[in-house]
Amino acid sequence: MDVSKILDSLNPAQREAVSSDNKSLLVLAGAGSGKTRVLVHRIAWLLQVQGVPASAIMAVTFTNKAAREMRSRIGELLQLTPQGMWVGTFHGLTHRLLKTHWRDAGLPENFQILDSDDQLRMVKRLLKEHELDETRFSPKSIQWYINGHKDEGRRAKHVDHHNDPYEKTLVNIYQAYETACERSGQVDFGELLLRAHELWLKQPSILNHYQQRFQYLLVDEFQDTNTIQYAWLRVLAGNGNTITVVGDDDQSIYGWRGAKIENIQQFSEDFPGTTIVKLEQNYRSTSRILDAANAVIANNPDRLGKELWTDGERGDPIQLYAGFNEQDEARFIVERIQSHVSNDLLRSEQAILYRSNAQSRVLEEELIRAGTPYRIYGGQRFYDRLEIKNAVAYLRLAYGSDDDAAFERVVNTPTRGIGNKTVEAVRLRAREANTSMWRACLQLIEAGALTNRAATSLSKFMELINDCAEASRTLSLEEFANFVLEATDLMAFHGKETGEKGQARVENLQELVNATRQFEPEGDDSTALREFLDTAALDAGDQQADEYTDAVQLMTLHSAKGLEFPVVYLAGVEENLFPHKMSVEEPGRLEEERRLCYVGITRAMRHLYLTYAESRRWYGQESFNAVSRFVREIPDDCIEEVRINASITRPLSARLSHAAEGHDTGLVLGQRVLHSVFGEGVVLNIEGQGSNARVQVNFNQEGSKWLVAAYANLEAV
Questions:
Q1: Of 470, 471, 437, 443, nearest in space to 455 by CA
Q2: Pairing outcome for strands 565-571 and 112-113
Q3: Which of 220, 250, 404, 542 is catalytic?
């Protein structure tokens, strides 16, 4: 391929990143700056210009969707699909590695991936076995505890409980969880990374092989890497391989789930001689929106630093609306949505973003009242749905009967007379014999340790699974899926649910069959079932939402990352909600909240609305919060306030910086003040002028009060 064909469509900074010869390259890619384009063109540059074999390249993404898009775009650019190149997610690539080196990794050959729901089910079972109260030891919290330690590269034996009884119990559960996974041949998502990292450290010859093979590493969304992911990459990169990481420290918003912003901040120190290329030209938003985003994020310390710009239009000012309450705020948003629709903009081109999921209720109610179709982006994904998880569990059991999580899920679904008491007896036997629940059933039945009814019911269930296993050896994947749904009565069972829910479940099961028909295994037919199950488990752990028809998109700010819309409504921009009240109290949290605001602002292409409620019913009580500090950080020439009832717009400074005329108080909205009687509070509103000027203050102890500015004697805190 001609060099010019790769570089001609790129801007100067993109060209520099694509053609760099440096061993370590950090591409700081601002929002909307074409980072995927750069990654794809850099791979093309390596292949076509530098003559790097495809088998020497590994490209790491964070979602399966991103990996598929990258493969597709590389194929389009090169007019061929490079063979031998590894492109995938951290979990997908490490899974591939472990499937190849299962024995060296200390795993059974047919180990299974434990998804989040099955992991939680196992934790609950372990809590019962240890006779622990779930009200004190929350299964979900313990699941997070285990995953958190794995993300940091710590096994149970590495965790110091400091002789604290509660912490010691958590460590014991973690240890029991590891033992249960080993016994049933299962690995969770965190285990994939941890086990793969341990493989590098324990098997130098294997590490050396892959270091020699993958001499060119490329990593997308690098700011989202956690400790174990970065450790795995650093070991694989070694001292001589070429590594390119693309990310944006200003969009690091997943600290709560283990992402370490320190990774991108310290990359240049970890890889001396790193070249840093900044992608600052934005191809998404108007310059007013970008100026606002730049101004907000500039208040964060320790940034690597960049300034988004565009050669596009200036655009309309950002609109700020102060609702009387959350219902008024929702009405304003829906009215503006309808106005844009009447001007030929699709509903799907408009998105409502919010900090907390709880905010969506009022917004949904108003959308329903107005008859405006909407969807919650990031709602239940296909492989997360009840009926699909049940069907996949049967497929898993047919593939490997020692799968305890799958066994527990469907042993009595549909109902077949196998009660909790019987299942508990099976669990106990499995634990005592250090074996799987399937083998424990065989032992209990052979020993005559169960009632006749229980033994008969279990025997019939096991015969069913054996029939499915036999069918899997002779039928195609699609035929096998149909066989399982019919043999297990799962289709009829879910179809009996009343109303549209039953029909929807049947349609989903039919779609699962479609998925098996369309699935293309890498190996031959004998490996199709195993590969399909692995793909289903990996997809269930992916952070992707479905594609929807023309409907307004509702989502949290965290879900919005990576998306863009012509019109964005950012709701609830008020103190204690956004930034969240807890963020002010925890080190580093306020900075992450500000990055979240930066992400929200940069989702907008042409129009951005910021809304808040002067009064909001929150956690069962009325709250009066000042407009968010993030709004006050936006320059006056980028934003203006709109008042529906008064049919006017005015510069934001007229509201945020307006002092009571006739009195040199210097008060502004959102300012903290002190009153001699009522104590400390926040200025919510300033009305009138001269001797009639009034100030509304929300006091910490006394609540909201209107005071005459001339006599309040408020002092700035």
A1: 443
A2: unpaired
A3: 220
> What residues pair up with 89 in beta bridges, in sequence order?
61
CA angle 345, 346, 350 (to 5 degrees): 90
3-state secondary structure of 220: coil
Predicted local distance difference test score (pLDDT) of residue 662: 38
SS3 state of residue 675:
strand
CA angle 428, 434, 436 (to 5 degrees): 75
**210 φ/ψ angles, rounded to the nearest 5 degrees:** -75, -30
Residues ≥6 apart with Cβ < 8 Å to 92: 64, 67, 538
**Structure token digits, residue 15:** 């060209």
Instruction: Please tell me what DSSP assigns to residue 621.
Output: E
Interacting residues of 257 by C-beta distance below 8 A, sequence separation 6+: none
Six-digit token pair at 697?
A: 């203050």
Q: Is there a catalytic annotation at residue 574?
A: no
Residue 388 to residue 399: CA distance in whole angstroms: 16
Strand partners, 345: none
- The one catalytic residue in 63, 186, 211, 251 is 251
Query: Among residues 221, 326, 408, 592, which one is catalytic?
Result: 221
Q: How much is the pLDDT for 652? A: 53
Query: What secondary structure letter does DSSP report for 248?
Result: -
> CB under 8 Å to 563, separation ≥6 — which residues?
351, 377, 555, 603
35 is catalytic: yes
All structural domains of the chain, each given as residue ranges with its CATH number in brackets, are 3-102+193-281 (3.40.50.300), 112-184 (1.10.10.160), 296-380+548-651 (3.40.50.300), 382-540 (1.10.486.10), 659-716 (2.40.10.170)
The answer to whether 221 is a known catalytic residue is yes
Alpha-carbon gap, residue 627 to 621, rounded angstroms: 18
Q: Which of 35, 121, 260, 431 is flagged as catalytic?
A: 35
Given the residues 603, 606, 616, 629, the one annotated as active site: 603
Tell me the pairing of strands 672-675 and 57-61. Answer: unpaired
Instruction: Say whether 134 is catalytic.
Output: no
Q: Which residues contact 560 (CB under 8 A, 6 or more apart)?
A: 351, 353, 377, 599, 600, 603
* Closest alpha carbon to 284 in 608, 527, 685, 6: 608
Is the separation of the CB atoms in 527 and 521 below 8 Å?
yes
Which two tokens mark 435? 């074996």
Helix 90-100, helix 528-540: angle, nearest 10? 150
Q: Is 109 exposed, middle or buried (0-12, 13-18, 19+ CB in 10 A)?
A: exposed
Could you tell me the mean pLDDT of each successive run of 10 residues in the chain, 717 residues long? 77 96 96 94 94 95 89 87 89 95 95 91 92 85 92 94 92 96 94 96 96 96 96 95 96 89 95 96 97 97 94 96 92 96 95 87 84 79 82 95 93 88 93 93 93 94 95 93 94 75 78 82 82 82 54 92 96 92 79 96 98 80 86 96 59 46 56 84 70 75 78 82
CA 148 to chain centre: 15
**Type of residue found at 186:** Q
Write the single-letter amino acid at 561: K
Secondary structure element (H or E) that encloses residue 592, with its range: helix 589-601
pLDDT at 648: 43
> What pLDDT is stored for residue 544 in this prediction?
38
The predicted pLDDT at position 650 comes to 46
What is the reported pLDDT for 622? 76
10 Å CB burial of residue 537 (0-12, 13-18, 19+) is: buried
Do 218 and 41 meet the contact criterion of CB atoms below 8 Å apart? no
Instruction: Respond yes or no: is residue 202 known to be catalytic.
Output: no
Question: CA-based diameter of the chain, in Å?
Answer: 94
Catalytic-residue membership of 649: no
CA–CA distance from 716 to each of 584, 625, 648, 662 (Å)? Answer: 20, 17, 31, 18
**pLDDT value, residue 107:** 96
Give the active site residue among 16, 36, 117, 543: 36
